[in-house]
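Hi, does anyone understand the following?
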Amino acid sequence: MNGTAGKLRIKVFKNREELGEDAAQMVAQQINTLQEEQEMVNIIFAAAASQNEFLAKLITHNVDWTRVNAFHMDEYIGLPEGAPEHFSHFLGERIFTKVPFANVFRLNGNVDDTEAECERYSSLLRQYPTDITCMGIGENTHLAFNDPYEADFNDNKLVKVVKLHVASRQQQVNEGCFATLSQVPEYAYTLTVPALLKAKAVFCMVPGSSKLEAVQHTLVDDISVRYPSTILRTLQNAVLFLDEDSVKGVIEHVN
């Protein structure tokens, strides 16, 4: 079914496989449309289990990837270099090394000067303005690592260092990325909310029962940094992809 919540377009699917297939088709179509008008397309990707089906389908579509630049939206600080838990590694396995991007711009979680790294990545985002953001919503409604009350809808930065809420770190354990909470880094880089949402098109894939509460907050609660994902309801250029598990019980809030 299709619907809206505020300005946000919503699509609901039977399962996460159908969700991923439809989202991939829409993103591929958006890339192809943009490439008719401009030479390069710049895309931000999320590294999360919610993106698995979407990414697996996206790489099968007929897209001129040599005219696409890829970014990712967050990265841990302080993990050993080459650690498989790095988000750049997650995306490397699923898309960054699977298609011939023009450039893959990775956040470096192992440099000593984190402010310089924020500025380096911000400069790249300014040089290659975002066309498409492909994202999810955290269990605590965070966008990238912009956690509740820490998110700033009017942030003047593009990239910053944040201390992660316990809920954000616990989600990484719940998704099998780490064995215990103590293994999850306390600090990370994140693209800010304005950096993520300034794209020409935003595609947000949120399958699974673990996201049910977050989806309810997203669709029902007042738009505020208490629940950062509520800001999506202000976007006319965004699509939220849900499955029956993630929307169960709140479907009446989809118009």
